[in-house]
Amino acid sequence: MALSNKTKAVLWGPLNKNNPVIVQVLGICSALAVTSKLEPAVVMAVSVTIVVAFANVIISLLRKTIPNRIRIIVQLVVAAALVTLVSEVLKAFAYDVNKQLSVFVGLIVTNCILMGRLEAFALGNGPLPSFLDGIGNGLGYGWILVVVGFFRELLGSGSLFGHRVIPQLIYDAGYKDNGLMMLAPMAILIVACIIWVHRSRNKELQEETN
Amino acid sequence: MNRESNTYTIVYASVMVIIVAVALAFTHQVLKDRQIKNENIDKMQQILRSLRLDVPANAAEAKYNAVIKNAYLINPDGAVVEGSEGVSVNDPAFEADIAKDDSKGLPVFEAEIEGKTKIVIPMAGKGLWGAIWGYLAVDADGSSVYGADFSHAGETPGLGAEIVSSRFCNQFEGKHLFRDEQFTSVAVVKPGRSVSDRDYVDGISGGTITSKGVDNMLLESVGKYKVFFRELYSAQ
Q1: Model confidence, pTM
Q2: B12 vs A66: CB contact, 8 Å cut-off?
Q3: What's the domain count of chain A?
Q4: Is residue A207 part of a domain?
Q5: Are A65 and B13 a contacting pair at CB < 8 A?
Q6: pLDDT at A102 over 70
């Protein structure tokens, strides 16, 4: 399927120059909460991508019928229903994954990216672009989570996906895991470092300074 | 049709909520049996892990049935509650949730590992963010800990959530619930610290409140079985 330039921008924009986390600075709370280990970060990234994509499609299909005054409520109900549905299905067919997600399922509903995309994109566009927009934004959010989770687990616990990767030799030589990495403030600092690198490579994103 | 009229808005909202409610209720009904089965298997896996048997979900039921020989409820005096014996998932011992209600009795599971009887009891307590629970396997002498397993609802990953790790759970092997004829249970202390009057294990660095929760749980939840364990202990 050939994608037009506009559709491509919808899909790939959020991964780079229109990234929800590092450019729009949305969804920061969950980015801090779930990134102390790589595994929940990956699971969260996948779940958010799925939920945003399908919520976008549903709202896009309904967009001509939704009364303007209660549109936020409609969006919330759709998002909450989808998250509950995902959680029910996981409980029945992938119990272990659901156990890991348990706390984070609630966080998906409150994720600002989800509401932001429904409000800003799905209400004004057709189902296919909305679906791609959801996938793009989910992945854009996800890759930041995975990068932050990678550094926090590596430097904080010396492991990746729960497997020890820093050899015992280095610990014997006096190296210690940095417990500070496990705490939320370090996630903010890592996100800030990513924003710094990203802005210095994309000059047009830099704000004017007086 | 005027999208902004009150009637339209109210009808729209009502229809939407009813559709969502019916869809969710239907999904829940359809999937309920599978979900309950998963929960039961998860509980079996936890009990087996406290017995140092780490089995995958698909083998848990068979292993559980092979290992657990008896299960029953006891009252606080240590006596078996009449008619509560039975190992199946619908029997009172397996169904009991001590975090909610222990007025009917306290569950006890008897397992046989390599010809020796082990007693498994459930524990329930509070961590930093929510519930924590676990299972403690004790030798037939009522004092030596054979193994332990902990779970939590939502402790901080990398910190409090580490109570589920085998590194934490394995520390309990060989500890004693009784010292000098007194029920002392096992303490959880800050790593590097020690206590002189009870057996202890190291807590989780950075997970102080969760570690304290486990410490409390070991004292209070296990403490309810004090009389039961004392009888086993004195019988030695």
Answers
A1: 0.74
A2: yes
A3: 1
A4: no
A5: no
A6: no
